[in-house]
Design brief:
It contains two helices and twelve strands; from the N terminus they run E-E-E-E-E-E-E-E-E-E-E-E-H-H. About 20% of the residues lie in helices and about 35% in strands. It has a twelve-stranded antiparallel beta barrel. Strand 6 and strand 7 form a beta hairpin.
């Protein structure tokens, strides 16, 4: 696991945001502030399918109707289209065999930021790095709770203070988490189909 407390960590430690979801396909997700009470973001998903109407996910500020950003996935591409405060942003794969995605941040003058797995055995944890490979934030997945997905730990003090930079971080982070969830679900479905076919063939042989 990556050393998560670089020099840009604030004196009080990272700002922690708690992520809760409803249902197996995360139809609704809530992100609460460090106090586990203040609602910062409400996220709705149209459905768990790539063929649902676009955008596939909408992120709103708190319980309001104000749209912070949207997320759209593609069936034949690993690219993910984001819109944050009406600014288009694209998350693109860092390589054909890479699990990392990067984007150019409008709130940071077009600087490149990257989401990547936190180590080989990450268990769902991901890191956000700047162009100098400095850790800006981390998502720590909760593998045991039924309703809590995990938590974002915002290290960078500028991002932790809120504003558009934090909005970009959250929208892109949620996009990466949902991309990975869909990919894992698709892999599981494929394995199930293959197992069923094998079982059918075995039954015929008997």
């Amino acid at each position: 696991m990556t050393n998560f407390y670089p020099q840009n960590t604030t004196a009080t430690g990272p700002r922690v945001l708690h992520v809760y979801h409803e249902g197996m396909i995360h139809r609704r997700t809530s992100i609460l502030d460090s106090d586990k009470n203040t609602l910062l973001y409400s996220i709705e998903q149209n459905s768990g399918s790539l063929f649902s109407s676009k955008p596939h996910m909408t992120i709103r500020a708190g319980a309001s109707t104000n749209v912070v950003g949207t997320i759209t996935f593609h069936s034949i591409s690993s690219a993910i289209d984001l819109v944050v405060h009406n600014q288009p942003i694209q998350l693109t794969s860092c390589g054909h065999f890479s699990s990392s995605h990067e984007f150019r941040s409008p709130s940071h003058g077009g600087a490149t930021m990257k989401w990547k797995k936190d180590g080989i055995l990450s268990g769902g944890d991901i890191l956000c790095l700047d162009s100098n490979e400095r850790v800006l934030a981390r998502f720590d997945k909760n593998n045991w709770a039924l309703a809590k997905s995990g938590r974002f730990e915002i290290v960078d003090p500028v991002l932790a203070s809120g504003g558009r930079g934090l909005d970009e971080l959250i929208v892109s982070g949620i996009a990466m988490l949902e991309y990975r969830r869909r990919k894992e679900a698709a892999s599981g479905a494929g394995s199930g189909v293959a197992t069923g076919m094998d079982g059918g063939a075995g039954g015929g042989a008997v």
